[in-house]
């Protein structure tokens, strides 16, 4: 009753077939179909068709038959869709056609025909959609077993399995990646499969009869979904897939499978049993879907509720993520079956890996709170992982040979889960490190047989992961190494070892030994296990060696090796083992072997020598330092060097050659003393210089470039680590070849040679200039372009802009080295011992050099190339800064140079350059050159015109004002790049103003009021400290601290600038101390602003104080805070007096309680009594404070007399 087709018992509302198709015995029919091609009916023959001609190999007739069957399938599907008034439709004909297509689909020729295979998938998608929708609507399809809704011989499992097979074949077919399915068709197919699955298992009413027979169909549906997610998951709508597939299908399956305590409910028991049997397939589908980046974000990423005014996202945890993790955690903690455990660990690991990628991306983009989410109970999961690893031999009832492969796979899945857990939740997992890395007494060896465990008793103490690395098979070793690496990355080694050094080895919570020593011991055992794993000769697989090298890369620069000598030696021993292995691989393997490359990269990581994101040089690690001391390792490095320098250098493995060159350069950069060890390894200055000279004389420009790189890295290392070495080795060995390289036909060689000159020290230039002036003159020639050389015949000119830029930079560095300090005043004699000059530099020769530099950079600063202009400005700035330290010996001669006025005008013009990088260099240079002129007496003041001085200050103030407009949201039409450079320019402007401010302390300064606007803008920077870049705020605070006291006195009482500064600093200090703002300023900025507040309180007049406390930003709470702060800082009585007076005289006097004013007045009287009694502060009490430093110097103990304050 109730069915559209009428009649029949069984499921209510189900449609029953009028007649059933009884096919022949299935195996026999398959046999017949394989032996002959089917004969299509007349109707199908007349409408047979072909899609394209045959391509590749194979018989044409076979392809034509395949095409006809595809057409016949679509015709049958159309008939099924049109059979609205029939009970079931002709599913028998569909099944027969599908069986024929399945036979043809398994033939090899189809695998090479990507286009026809794509057409097959499209037809099968239509078949899936049609059959799944028809079965969902009518509740049944034709079957071989009467009374059942579906069977493994029915049409449903067949079409789903064929679709999965076709998609898998398409993934492995050449050209399969170019095939595309429409998003709409894929989404419709997935929706039909989800609906059919739910109708069979999750929402069907006749569950007891249906679910028991639905296992083949549901398993085929999940297999088909898995294949679709792998091949086409990227085109599915992410949010729609999460809401229409994951939430209504996968989550209920996991919930039913993990539910317990069901009694007497046959329907629920059937569902639960089926869902448990489908758990591995379901988790495989989830893993395949999570592997798609868009899908994983929709399922696991936090949900964004709103965007704040600051541009931050207000987020909440994704409920779907929390539900999936909760279900997987429950299954992991409760299940003991090997199949379910393996699939749970695999799916759990994939989800945690996706969470790690999502959270890492949010942190990199500055999103999120920065706190680690607690989605799961990490401690419980870690303990469960440890238990499973310890007892994995009982997971399948023993550890026999038959189950050894399954057991090994289970262990690997568990170890992968541990790795993913450590990466996703490093802070939480760090507390569980001892479970896996620290030795313990096990009840039995996890890798031994049960009989051995029972007879031998507790095994020797050994860390769990070390046990797997020592005794596991190859894949288990690799998985254990990955887990160990993830745990070491999670552990805050720097913090723990820093605490250990501060505690001086005091006992920690263990009561026996410090945390650092425990970690050190665990790492030592791990290193010993790694050494053993790679010392097995041919038994060590490539994966083991690669994973060992990645662990070395991760830990070689960490804190433990700096604190523990024995641990550094242990890692040096492991590096020795890797060196021996690399020598064997280089001698026995072909040119494509990548293991030597991986090993060299591990050495590179430990050598340091690169610049980290903070701008610091990564140091040479302790293990590599100890490794380099050994003579056999130095000999090995020299062999690598000989391989690069020798004639066969171009014939060896290209990757090995490239990485070996990088390693050798970094060794020279970080350990230049290797050339002076005096052993027999071959690393001697003579052999090194000979080899490099042979490279520089080679016809191949790549090899000449390699030689210059070796020289440059050695010179850098000598400058940093051999500062006392003043030997002429570099100049004598490479001076002539570097000069020859300046004239090389290759622009890259000329540029590298100029860069090497830029690294020379003062002692090097003294030797070179004494030998010949050609080095300096040639560099000057290269600073000027060909266009300028046509008008100025003095210069030959350089055509390559990059070379001109590098030459200007080298000249600038030379000026920094040679033009500062003290020099001999004699005309030609060297500096005496009493002089401060480090080397024999002749003042007359330097005078000529400086004049030549000024003439050259005057031309270079007008270059058409922005890079050349920027480096010319860099050179001018270095020269000006160096001349300021020459005690007037050179600066007096320089300011009379005829080209200097033109140069000053060019620098000012560059402040408005179109290139932002040039503007940045011009901001820096203008400060140095104006300071030089101001400090050069009357001659400098003559050159310093009011227009030049005023124009520079006004321009710098405008640069600063633009950044303030951006922070306040006024400049809305600027691109991100423009805003970024505006921040950099404002930062540089504050620095330059800080350089120019002290020059305005002279009483004859006519332009002092020019600084009023600039100082006002910098105070505004303090007000916007939470909106501006911290660099700008820090530079503004530092510049305000450089303002002369005389200038503040001129502004006091006349303008509101001191009042504005006091209010700005007070509000920021109050908000920072009370924690009102979510954003925190850096400690250095907080200290500078507190110093400025102390300054403004000390210099403010009565009018300044009245103006300050009339400001609406001052509240009673701020005044209470200010009183306490001033008491703590030891402010003077005059400051308390001025505030008390201001509170009674300002426009807001009625808003504050009288008790606040009385507190300041009482404290003022108390401070006056203390000042009269203290001789140290008498001078300050008389008002003789003339500098900010003097104000800050009053550092008394303010806590010893706080109880002596007058009673109100």
Provide a descriptive summary of the structure in words.
This protein is mainly α and 1208 residues long. The protein contains 59 helices and two strands. It has a two-stranded antiparallel sheet with strand order 1-2. A hairpin with a 5-residue loop joins strand 1 and strand 2. The protein is globular.
For the biggest sheet, the summary is: 2 strands, antiparallel
Give the C-alpha Rg. Answer: 40 Å
Strand order in the largest sheet: 1-2
How much β-strand is present in the residues?
under 5%
Number of strands: 2
First CA to last CA: what distance?
A: 96 Å
Low-pLDDT runs of 5+ residues are 1-58, 142-152, 393-403, 447-460, 500-512, 823-840, 1177-1208
* Overall mean confidence score, pLDDT: 78
Query: What level of helicity do the residues show?
Result: 55-70%
**Number of helices in the DSSP assignment:** 59
**Secondary structural class:** mainly alpha
Instruction: Give the overall form.
Output: globular
Briefly characterize the structure.
This protein is mostly helical and 1208 residues long. It has 59 helices and two strands.
Structure characteristics:
single chain, 1208 residues, mainly alpha, two-stranded antiparallel sheet, 2 strands, 1% strand, globular, disordered N terminus, disordered C terminus
Show the helix and strand layout.
Layout: H1 26-35, H2 42-46, H3 60-82, H4 91-105, H5 108-111, H6 114-138, H7 155-171, H8 183-202, H9 207-210, H10 215-232, H11 238-258, H12 266-277, H13 279-290, H14 293-300, E1 303-307, E2 313-316, H15 319-334, H16 338-364, H17 378-390, H18 404-424, H19 426-430, H20 434-437, H21 450-456, H22 464-471, H23 474-490, H24 493-503, H25 515-534, H26 542-555, H27 560-563, H28 565-588, H29 595-607, H30 622-629, H31 631-645, H32 654-670, H33 685-696, H34 701-721, H35 729-742, H36 747-757, H37 762-771, H38 774-781, H39 786-791, H40 801-818, H41 843-860, H42 866-884, H43 891-894, H44 900-910, H45 916-934, H46 937-943, H47 946-967, H48 976-996, H49 1010-1023, H50 1030-1041, H51 1045-1051, H52 1057-1074, H53 1083-1099, H54 1102-1108, H55 1116-1129, H56 1133-1145, H57 1154-1173, H58 1178-1181, H59 1188-1192
Antiparallel strand pairs: 1-2
Helix pairs in contact: 3-4, 3-6, 4-7, 6-7, 6-8, 7-10, 8-10, 8-11, 10-13, 11-12, 11-13, 11-14, 11-15, 13-16, 14-16, 15-16, 16-18, 17-18, 18-23, 22-23, 22-25, 23-26, 25-28, 26-29, 28-29, 28-30, 29-32, 31-32, 32-34, 33-34, 33-35, 34-36, 35-36, 36-40, 40-41, 40-42, 41-42, 41-44, 42-45, 44-45, ...
């Amino acid at each position: 009753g109730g069915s559209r087709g009428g009649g029949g018992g069984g499921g209510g509302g189900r449609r029953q077939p009028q007649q059933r198709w009884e096919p022949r015995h299935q195996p026999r029919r398959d046999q017949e179909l394989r032996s002959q091609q089917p004969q299509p009916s007349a109707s199908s023959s007349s409408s047979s068709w072909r899609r394209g001609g045959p391509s590749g190999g194979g018989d044409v007739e076979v392809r034509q038959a395949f095409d006809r069957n595809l057409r016949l399938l679509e015709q049958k599907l159309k008939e099924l869709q049109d059979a609205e008034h029939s009970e079931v439709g002709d599913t028998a004909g569909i099944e027969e056609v599908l069986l024929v297509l399945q036979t043809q689909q398994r033939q090899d020729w189809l695998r090479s025909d990507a286009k026809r295979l794509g057409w097959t998938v499209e037809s099968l998608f239509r078949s899936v959609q049609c059959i799944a929708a028809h079965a969902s609507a009518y509740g049944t399809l034709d079957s071989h077993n009467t009374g059942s809704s579906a069977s493994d011989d029915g049409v449903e499992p067949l079409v789903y399995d064929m679709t999965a097979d076709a998609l898998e074949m398409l993934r492995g077919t050449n050209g399969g990646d170019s095939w595309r399915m429409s998003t709409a068709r894929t989404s419709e197919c997935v929706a039909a499969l989800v609906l059919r699955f739910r109708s069979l298992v999750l929402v069907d009413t006749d569950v007891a009869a249906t679910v028991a027979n639905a296992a083949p169909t549901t398993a085929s549906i999940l297999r088909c979904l898995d294949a679709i997610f792998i091949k086409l998951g990227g085109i599915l709508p992410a949010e729609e897939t999460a809401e229409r597939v994951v939430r209504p299908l996968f989550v209920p399956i996991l919930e039913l499978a993990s539910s317990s305590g069901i009694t007497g409910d046959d329907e629920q028991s059937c569902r639960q049993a089926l869902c448990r049997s489908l758990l591995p397939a379901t988790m495989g589908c989830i893993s395949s879907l999570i592997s798609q980046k868009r899908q994983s974000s929709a399922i696991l990423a936090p949900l964004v509720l709103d965007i704040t005014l600051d541009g931050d996202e207000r987020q909440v945890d994704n409920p779907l993520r929390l539900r999936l993790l909760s279900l997987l955690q429950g299954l992991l903690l409760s299940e003991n079956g090997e199949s379910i455990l393996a699939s749970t660990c695999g799916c759990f690991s994939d989800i945690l890996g996706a969470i790690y990628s999502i959270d890492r991306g949010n942190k990199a983009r500055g999103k999120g709170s920065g706190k680690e989410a607690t989605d799961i109970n990490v401690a419980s999961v870690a303990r469960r992982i440890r238990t499973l690893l310890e007892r994995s031999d009982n997971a399948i009832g023993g550890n026999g040979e038959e189950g050894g492969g399954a057991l090994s796979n289970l262990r690997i899945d568990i170890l992968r889960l541990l790795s993913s857990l450590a990466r996703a939740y490093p802070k939480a997992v760090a507390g569980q490190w001892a479970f896996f890395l620290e030795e313990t007494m096990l009840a039995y060896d996890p890798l031994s047989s049960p009989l051995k465990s029972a007879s031998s008793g507790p095994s020797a103490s050994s860390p769990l992961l070390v046990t797997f690395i020592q005794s596991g098979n190859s894949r288990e070793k690799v998985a254990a190494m990955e887990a160990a690496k993830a745990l070491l990355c999670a552990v805050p080694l720097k913090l723990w070892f820093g605490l250990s050094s501060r505690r001086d080895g005091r006992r920690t919570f263990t009561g026996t030994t410090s945390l650092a020593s425990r970690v050190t011991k665990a790492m030592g055992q791990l290193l010993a296990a790694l050494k053993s794993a790679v010392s097995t000769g041919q038994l060590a697989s490539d994966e083991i060696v690669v994973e060992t090298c990645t662990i070395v890369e991760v830990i070689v620069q960490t804190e433990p090796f700096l604190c523990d000598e024995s641990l550094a030696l242990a890692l040096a021993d492991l590096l020795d083992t890797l060196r021996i292995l690399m020598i064997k691989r280089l001698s026995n393997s072909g040119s494509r072997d990548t293991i030597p490359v991986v090993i060299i990269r591990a050495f590179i990581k430990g050598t340091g020598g690169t610049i980290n994101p903070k701008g610091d040089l990564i140091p040479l690690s302790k293990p590599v330092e100890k490794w380099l001391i050994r003579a056999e390792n130095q000999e090995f490095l020299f062999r690598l060097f000989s391989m690069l320098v020798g004639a066969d250098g171009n014939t060896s493995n290209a990757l090995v050659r490239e990485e070996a060159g990088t390693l050798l350069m970094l060794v020279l950069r970080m350990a230049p003393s290797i050339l002076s060890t005096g052993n027999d390894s071959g690393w001697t200055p003579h052999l090194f210089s000979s080899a490099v000279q042979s490279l520089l004389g080679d016809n191949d420009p790549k090899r000449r470039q390699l030689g210059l790189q070796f020289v440059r890295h050695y010179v850098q290392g000598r400058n940093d680590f051999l500062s006392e070495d003043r030997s002429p080795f570099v100049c004598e060995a490479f001076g002539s070849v570097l000069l020859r390289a300046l004239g090389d036909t290759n622009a890259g060689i000329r540029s590298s040679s100029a860069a090497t000159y830029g690294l020379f020290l003062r002692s090097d230039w003294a030797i070179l200039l004494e030998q010949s002036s050609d080095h300096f003159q040639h560099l000057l020639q290269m600073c000027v372009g060909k266009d300028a050389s046509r008008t100025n015949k003095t210069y030959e000119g350089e055509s390559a802009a990059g070379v001109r830029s590098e030459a200007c930079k080298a000249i600038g560095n030379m000026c920094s080295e040679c033009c500062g300090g003290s020099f001999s005043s004699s005309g030609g004699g060297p500096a005496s011992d009493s002089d401060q000059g480090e080397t024999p530099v002749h003042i007359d020769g330097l005078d000529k050099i400086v004049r030549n530099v000024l003439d050259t950079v005057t031309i270079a600063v007008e270059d058409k190339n922005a890079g050349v202009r920027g480096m010319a400005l860099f050179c001018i700035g270095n020269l000006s800064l160096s001349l300021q330290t020459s005690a007037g010996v050179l600066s007096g001669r320089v300011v009379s140079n005829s080209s200097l006025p033109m140069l000053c005008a060019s620098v000012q013009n560059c402040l408005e350059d179109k290139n932002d990088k040039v503007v940045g260099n011009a901001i820096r240079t203008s400060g140095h050159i104006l300071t030089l002129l101001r400090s050069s007496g009357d001659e400098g003041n003559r050159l310093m015109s009011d227009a030049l001085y005023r124009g520079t200050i006004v321009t710098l103030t405008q640069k600063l004002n633009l950044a303030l407009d951006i922070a306040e949201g006024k400049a809305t039409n600027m691109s991100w790049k423009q805003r970024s450079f505006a921040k950099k320019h404002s930062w540089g402007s504050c620095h330059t103003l800080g350089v120019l401010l002290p020059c305005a302390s002279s009483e004859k300064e006519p332009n002092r009021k020019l600084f009023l606007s600039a100082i006002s803008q910098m105070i505004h920077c303090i007000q916007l400290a939470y909106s501006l870049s911290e660099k700008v705020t820090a530079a503004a605070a530092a510049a305000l601290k450089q303002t002369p006291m005389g200038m503040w006195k001129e502004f006091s009482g006349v303008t509101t600038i001191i009042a504005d500064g006091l209010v700005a600093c007070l509000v920021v200090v109050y908000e920072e101390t009370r924690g009102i703002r979510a954003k925190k300023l850096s400690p250095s900025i907080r200290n500078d602003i507190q110093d400025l507040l102390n300054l403004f309180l000390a210099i403010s007049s009565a009018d300044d104080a009245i103006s300050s406390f009339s400001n609406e930003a001052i509240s009673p709470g701020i005044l209470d805070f200010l009183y306490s702060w001033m008491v703590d800082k030891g402010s003077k009585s005059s400051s308390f007096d001025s505030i008390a007076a201001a509170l009674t005289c300002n426009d807001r006097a009625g808003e504050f309680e009288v008790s606040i004013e009385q507190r300041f007045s009482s404290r003022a009287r108390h401070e006056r009594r203390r000042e009269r009694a203290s001789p140290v502060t008498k001078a300050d009490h008389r008002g003789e404070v003339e500098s900010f430093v003097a104000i800050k110097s009053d550092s008394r103990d303010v806590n010893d007399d706080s109880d002596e304050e007058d009673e109100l």
